[in-house]
Design goal:
Elements: E1 7-12, H1 16-26, E2 33-38, H2 41-45, E3 53-59, E4 61-62, E5 65-66, H3 67-77, E6 82-87, H4 92-100, E7 105-108, H5 113-124, H6 132-138, H7 148-152, H8 157-167, H9 172-179, H10 183-197, H11 202-211
Parallel strand pairs: 1-2, 1-3, 3-6, 6-7
Antiparallel strand pairs: 4-5
């Protein structure tokens, strides 16, 4: 079905030129975008109608906030938004930590235009984008389950639905609301899904799912 309202996208970055560049590039991503901008965490948090913003591109280093703190505050304030971190850093441990804290993707600022657009298209389609440098660096950490594809067949439809939403960066609270189930039920389904994948937490599940192409549409 055709979208009846514009998708609201917010870029939070303290470099005006970078914001303008993104605005120009994102015209190629989707025609029905309402592009909002903020140059600081404070400006973003002061915006009205936070619930209507669907995707946020968050700079990892802002003048008034650093990395993890920015992500935590933005996640709490914009609970309907999918948050993507953009950064000049390419540290696999940093990337993994931010995914663990609910980011639906991490795009290095050194990425080409094609990679940026492909990553955002994947995220808009419900996927999670992790740069190759991070997947390769941590691949050894998620090898507990030899046949994760077979293991996933043991999950119920509802368990798989919960897993898919979790690897999209959605909180247990949001998943519970979307599926009309209790948060305790969400946790139980996630525990079963993690066991099936042979992982112990949400981040490892994201990495395993990205390698299985589970989150691609």
């Amino acid at each position: 079905s055709k979208r009846t309202t514009l998708m609201k996208l917010l870029t939070i970055d303290d470099h005006a030129l970078f914001r303008q560049g993104l605005k120009f590039l994102l015209k190629d991503l989707q025609s029905d975008l309402d592009f909002l901008e903020a140059e600081s965490l404070a400006e973003a948090l002061a915006l009205d109608d936070k619930a209507s913003i669907e995707i946020i591109l968050l700079d990892h280093h802002l003048r008034d906030s650093e990395g993890d703190e920015s992500l935590e505050k933005i996640s709490a304030a914009f609970e309907n938004a999918t948050i993507v971190v953009l950064s000049g850093e390419e540290d696999p441990q940093l990337i993994r930590r931010l995914i663990d804290h609910g980011a639906a993707g991490y795009i290095p600022k050194s990425s080409t235009q094609d990679i940026l657009i492909a990553a955002l298209k994947l995220i808009l389609a419900g996927g999670v984008y992790i740069p190759a440098i991070a997947v390769h660096a941590t691949a050894h950490a998620d090898t507990q389950q030899e046949n994760p594809e077979q293991a996933l067949d043991t999950l119920s439809k509802r368990q798989l639905e919960v897993l898919m939403r979790a690897v999209q960066g959605k909180s247990n609270k949001v998943i519970a609301r979307e599926l009309f189930i209790a948060e305790g039920t969400v946790k139980a389904h996630l525990s079963a899904a993690f066991r099936a994948l042979g992982v112990s937490n949400r981040t490892e599940a994201v990495y395993a799912a990205s390698r299985l192409k589970l989150v691609k549409v």
